[in-house]
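A note from the maintainers: we've had questions about how concatenated examples are separated. There is no special marker in the raw files; a new sequence line simply starts the next protein. For clarity in this README we add a label.
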Amino acid sequence: MPRATRYPVPATQNRVEDRIHNSRFIATLAPAASADAARALVDAVRAEFPDATHHCFAFVAGPPGSSSDIGSGDDGEPGGTAGRPMLNVLLNSGVGDVAVVVTRYFGGVKLGKGGLVRAYSGAVQHALREAATVMRVERIAVRVRFAYPHTDSVRRALAREDAAITGERFGDEVELDVQLPEDRLDAIRQLLLDLTAGGARLERAQ
């Protein structure tokens, strides 16, 4: 299966709360492109709610559904009733680079294993429903060379393709350093060839 190069991620941190049999379940969901970022979220939530009964967590650092960098924890809840169900929701959410902490204040009524699974899963689902997302686009650095008469048309084409020019040099020809969406590399290469009658050269930057 090819690696995803364009996928939704949380735009910012958000928080929701559910109450079930007097227990409070506070879900804090945030972007997390690495395990370290996920752990930082857990530490921040623990510091914010130091008197809570549990801080269960899950994260998927990478494209939606990717299992190469994931983690979860039950933080004292019965094994398999919190972290893993939360992780399953994230893995099937279609959102990547995401972490969530569900903070519980025990309300005096035991929910049982099934009730805990539903409560923690539901808290994550609630947070995902309320979360705004943005598209993460994997980019690569390339160098584009072409003759001077094509400068304006090449610049306009790159702008339309969401490619950012990060450097430029003018010698015998124009040379641009460009950051472009990885999944558009072949299409942009062909576009530039068409615009320059085959004269453009595009190569990955070293």
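[label: protein 2]
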Amino acid sequence: MSSRSSGHGSIDPAARVADFVSAQVDASSPTNSSDREFVRRLATFRRTRRNKKRRVVGLTIAATLIAGGTAGWRFRHEASLTPVLTYRADNQAPPAGGYILVPEESESLLAFSDGSNVRMAARTRGRVVEVNSQGATVALDSGKASVDIVPRPHARWIFEAGPFRVNVHGTSFTVAWNPAAAVFEVYLSRGAISVASPVAGPQIEMRAGQSLRANLRDQTVTLGTTGRAVPPVTDNPPVATPSPEPPREAPAAPVEPAGRWSHRGWMTALAENRAADILADADRRGPAAALKRADSDDLWALANAARYAGRYPLAEQALGAHRTRFPSSARSREAAFLLGRLHEGDHDGPADALGWYDRYLAESRGAGVSDALGRKMTVLQRWNRRTEALTVARDYLRRFPHGTYAQAARALIRSSTAAQ
């Protein structure tokens, strides 16, 4: 004899009687019409009860699935409504192109809407490359920045300094990059970060109180303890030191003589983050004259000043002029890389950006190859050219298994494998 439960969890007396009678009848065969009728009704009762139980179980499962689906949809919906961060530079609207040029005797504060702050020291050059709902990507061209990131779930902040990449979640640290000396430094006062370096092998995990110094020229990396929350780096900020130049001359007359004009201190002005002065001087003399007659230093300074100020057509013209007039110089090769960066924002396709990166990769053998190959991979991925992006990702890992973009390349390969 079996026992059954009703919908309320108590034993169903009718079910027990039916099971008992059914067992007795099943033990013997019906011999007359009344017995057969009784057996038929009993079978109908049992079928009805079984169907009812199945419906209850099915409805319970359906309700569970609906509840789970609703919760998942609500999570995804709420995630999609997470607002994109915004920021202000010195309490002003973000500058054109996100370029930050800090004057010689002051500092600049980038205040983000989630409460995070990036304080850039005097004479620092950098750019806010991207801002999204998870965080931001900030590139440090030269100088020093003190960073204080507010911890949030799923936050993703990235700080690029030359070929180095700092991955951040919630923490406070100071990062510095001196491109002239090829020296990278980071001091961690709170939280945890990881640093991807072309000379340090795998990503370096850092904890509070540690410092890291890497020198690209002698290929050395030093990981130590600061002994204090924030080390005294303010007194000697690691800013780019230009090559010795002749003393800056007084402004010349607007009319230039035929032939190339002499060096007029634009490189010095660039090192002092006076891009506006360079552009004003070029506008006064005529940009066309600069493109035709300026020496390598001035032309290079003009190209970078235009990039920092968001005057991208002039920057492209100056970089192109440098490649035409000084084709065998190292700057000419670097110009190809910078032209690729300029064209990454094109809305009509990645052809120009990819073309310039390919030229740079064909012409160069230095440390910048890793960066160019990684950026080529990300451009292809952004334009949904996954097959080509995968090819570049595999090539990148073969050549730079511990490079800045190695983690992104592995993630792309994993996602492609999982989708197959």
